[in-house]
Amino acid sequence: MKTSFARPSAELMRGFAVFPTPDISDQLNRLYAVNPGIRCLTSDRHRVCGPACTVKVFPGDNLMVHKALDVIEPGDVIIVDAGGSEMNAVLGDLISTKARHRGAAGFVIDGLVRDLQTIQELGDFPVFARGTTPIGPLHRGPGEINFPICCGGVVVNPGDIVVGDAMGVVIVPQGIAEELLMRLREYEAANATYFESVKKGNFSNAWVDNILVELECPMVRDASVTVTTPVADVPAAAAVEAPAVTPLPVV
Asked: How far apart (Å, rounded) are the C-alpha atoms in residues 142 and 15?
């Protein structure tokens, strides 16, 4: 168990808090979204963003989840690798209430929870998990706190940024967080005009034809007509093209 780890700055946390998970995933080359089986169970309106306090438990045991409450700082997201186990819940209403009092931003569980209704009654405490069961956890160990874990197929290190909303959970490696936030802001600015034009119905799909031309994709306009390749010269003089923003290389 490690009782401390390097956390991103509060300013960095505030920066990521405004972006939806699909935008973050796009700029991470779609590589750091956890398995969609892990979803927000408490409310479609709940959102979480904070540094990861990582916990690894033996499937069905939550002794180290309890101990993590003595390690976290306000704003931390407790993210638990329970191996996706369907044996026992590793989270319930009592530990959720305690975590809320300790300032945890929420839980992400690669496993099951119980007492969902009373957790939801906390009102503003997001919990992401694979589902529910009435079967409670054991308290025997073993386990680890603040070592690398795997949650929903994604490696998570202590201090990585966890962002979750109604669409899922993404993990931002701490080492690339500043550059990624800059790229997200560039993406938002570059697409603002395009999004407004799409809302008004003013857009062109010429970019699709350009890709099909590059792929030399044949296009059959009629069964009796010879197969041709698409022509990218689509008349759309007034239409707005989607700006291209290169995703962040992941190293």
From this structure: 36
